[in-house]
Amino acid sequence: MANKQNPVGDFGAMAEQTMEQARRAIDEYFSFLLKTVSSYPTGGTEFGEKVKNYAESNLAATHEFVKRVVQTKDVQDLARLQTEFMQDQFQKFGEQSQSLSEAFTKAATDAAKMPMKKS
After folding, report:
1. For the whole model, what pTM was predicted?
2. What SS3 state is found at 61?
3. What are phi and psi of 72, to 5 degrees?
4. Which domain holds residue 43?
5. pLDDT tens column, 78-99
6. Which of 2, 20, 38, 104 could form a disulfide linkage to 10, CB 3.0–4.6 angstroms apart?
7. C-alpha angle 84/90/94, rounded to 5°?
8. 39-58 in b/e burial notation, b at 16+ Cβ within 10 A?
């Protein structure tokens, strides 16, 4: 614990050790999530591949955001990071939604063109 000569120093070292453990836990968590999403089958469709790729991309962006949040020094920096992240995610959401809508429409159109099997 704190010694008589430098009581704050020991607490600072403990805090840094705790932060490093938290960083490792966050990295392990996102690594697990990414491996899980990456191993999920897509059904071999364009739509499935896009969903999987977007999920991986969004997880990577969120992981990077969390790593940057942990390094913030003040509330203004945190607010700036949050604003940038949300603006970027809203833009990506729009692009991904449009792309998925197009892929879904194409898949539905292709399915409608297929002849039906008689029982």
Report:
1. 0.73
2. helix
3. -65, 150
4. 10-98
5. 999 999 999 999 999 999 999 9
6. 2
7. 145
8. eeeeeeebbeebbbebbeee
Contacts of 44 (CB under 8 A, 6+ apart): none
Residue with tokens 């120093």: 9
26, part of any domain: yes
Structurally, the chain folds into a number of domains equal to 1
Average pLDDT for 3-26 = 76
Q: What is the dihedral of CA 78, 20, 35, 107, to 10 degrees?
A: 0
> Within a domain: residue 29?
yes
Q: How far apart are the first and last CA of the chain?
A: 78
113, part of any domain? no
